[in-house]
Amino acid sequence: MKKSLHIDIAQPTIMALTEITYKYIPYWNGFHPLKMSLLLPKERKGLSPRPLLIWVCGGGFESMDKDVWLPELVFYARAGYIVASIEYRTHNLATFPGLLEDAKAAVRFLRAHAEDFLIDPERIAMAGESAGGYLTTMAGVTGNTREFDVGENLDQSSELQAVVNIYGRSDMIRGWYEKNNQGRIRNGTELLLGGKPDGIPEVYEKASASHYIRSDMPPFLLLHGTGDRMVPIEQNDLFYEQMTAAGNEVEYYTVEGAGHGAEEFYQTEIKNLVLAFLDKHLK
Question: Can you give the pTM of this predicted structure?
């Protein structure tokens, strides 16, 4: 059988660019590159700059894989976003604020190379799950300070225009006690911050998103499962109350019965909620 087809080009082909170095960190034998992966149109000539979604994966501050969610993130690339998924330092490589410095360095790098990657530098959102949700939230609430902006591209801003926190925590003192009460042999919060909250309370405060809440935050979308035992939903309950009390715009969805990292969060219904939020603030 032989047939002739006429195909209209309705959408660009999406390609992945992986292993892009955005920062070098000190390492035992010199320097180690931190990488990111991008999803963007294969043919970019003649296309207008697109809003950027930066994704941050979780891993309990102990492990992470920047590429593990790329198949799910194609949804947003198909919807007209440039997508970047970034690597950051876990606690075995750096204590706080190392991972926050990394996230902000990634934002600055992408703004500095916006023209190369078809990015509109005025329309940048960050989203993440679990530890990535925490890091995303910290990047969002510290946009008015340059304290955590170190390294390259310091002429660029690390501010975000929208933030999505998926079952990530906002209060690290509360987080330490949650992990302690779960009977964890290794408390990831303690390892990340370099001690217990009663010994270094100022570090725990500095590492808590709730410490930075003010009235001019970027809009936030919060998603959390009512069945989450790893990061209890009270983390985002309290953050929502604090943010709205300060006059900020926050959308908060609780997912009935969903646990930490549950399949519910990767269903089309949730993706459409996230996309509607991003479109509202970036398009």
Answer: 0.96
